[in-house]
Amino acid sequence: xLSKYEEKLISIRGSVVDIINGLISANKTILEALEDCDSExxxxxxxxxxxxxxxxxxxxxxxxxTFALHTPEARDLRxxxxxxxxxxxxxxxxxxxxxxxxxxxxxxGEVDMKMINEYALxxxxxTVDSLVFTAQMLTLDCVDEIQExxxxxxxxxxxxxxxxxxxxxxxxxxxxxxxxxxxYHSMLSALRKSEKVADRALSIASLLLxxxxxxxxxxxx
Length: 221
Known about the structure:
Blueprint: H1 4-36, H2 39-46, H3 52-69, H4 74-107, H5 113-137, H6 143-174, H7 178-213
């Protein structure tokens, strides 16, 4: 039979997994919405990340209570410290996801679908990958497998950065009028939020790497 302490750790970990899975579902739905600018799917994506702030506050309270009632050591201590920081990253990732939906819905039907297919879709796909590989880290115990998932999350995040820079350069070349520039600048601003979701995923992955393998905490600003 598990102790109350072990049950609390499992509950905290499960709550974090649930929020990350909600972020994955939201961003996968956004990826589908981008294919044909489907406004219903854009709206549906937001349903997967409702009340994240309230959920993370509950996790924080559970962590603080666990610190107060028990004396976690080594990996358990690192994991609780990491989760206390991860909750903030989850709130930011959820906010970035909602901002992306709001921003891109306004311009999706106005910009060239070629640019969406060439940049927005693969960029959002990489954002989803960064979240998926980060979530995998919560299910693994093998040090090498955890490191491998982290490396994959890092590659996915780097890809979003590269694609955003390529899109930015392309927009500057193609925006021949003020109207076009404003339109594509709005698209860039929205996609910047997608890139930020990948940043937050990598920050969470870094915290999980610290929790499972030790070492220093390396967070993304």
